[in-house]
Design brief:
The protein is mainly beta. Helix content is 4%, strand content 58%. The chain has 1 helix and 9 strands; from the N terminus they run αβββββββββ. It has a 9-stranded antiparallel beta sheet with strand order 1-2-3-4-5-6-7-8-9. β5 and β6 form a beta hairpin. The longest helix has 6 residues. The protein is globular.
């Protein structure tokens, strides 16, 4: 299934809640979240713009996804004011038959090997989707 087709079906303005777990020993941190999904660049890409809060301070991020016609690989550029600070991450992944779009990228974590992010978008019908992010050590 085309990732662009999946996300085009989610175009619009969204409201929900953000749950942030920093470690299993710490409580979840919750905040309100809003997202806007749109097509861009003559409908060649999808963009998710979102906002949330950490300890009462507003945060925002953006994800731009593309998938070349006839290709299985989904490519994305992601940045977020809290997770990535002044950097952006280039990611690659795929779209599943059930509409789930999932991709990964890496970042330097000196002095050890690189760490990564797994980002998954799970459509749950016309009026619900989940946007999941996992830090991979």
């Amino acid at each position: 299934m085309s990732a662009l087709a999946v996300l085009t079906g989610l175009v619009g303005n969204w409201q929900g809640s953000n749950h942030l777990w920093l470690s299993p020993e710490e409580p979840v941190r919750k905040s309100e979240s809003v997202a806007k999904i749109r097509t861009t660049a003559k409908e060649q890409f999808n963009e998710i713009q979102y906002s949330w809060a950490y300890e009462g301070k507003p945060q925002e991020g953006r994800l731009i996804l593309g998938q070349a016609t006839g290709q299985d690989v989904v490519k994305a550029v992601w940045f977020d004011t809290w997770h990535m600070c002044e950097e952006f991450m280039v990611c690659e992944g795929s779209a599943e038959d059930d509409g789930t779009v999932s991709f990964r990228g890496t970042y330097a974590a000196p002095p050890g090997p690189d760490w990564g992010w797994q980002i998954t978008i799970e459509p749950k019908g016309e009026d619900v989707f989940r946007f999941l992010m996992y830090n991979i050590t």
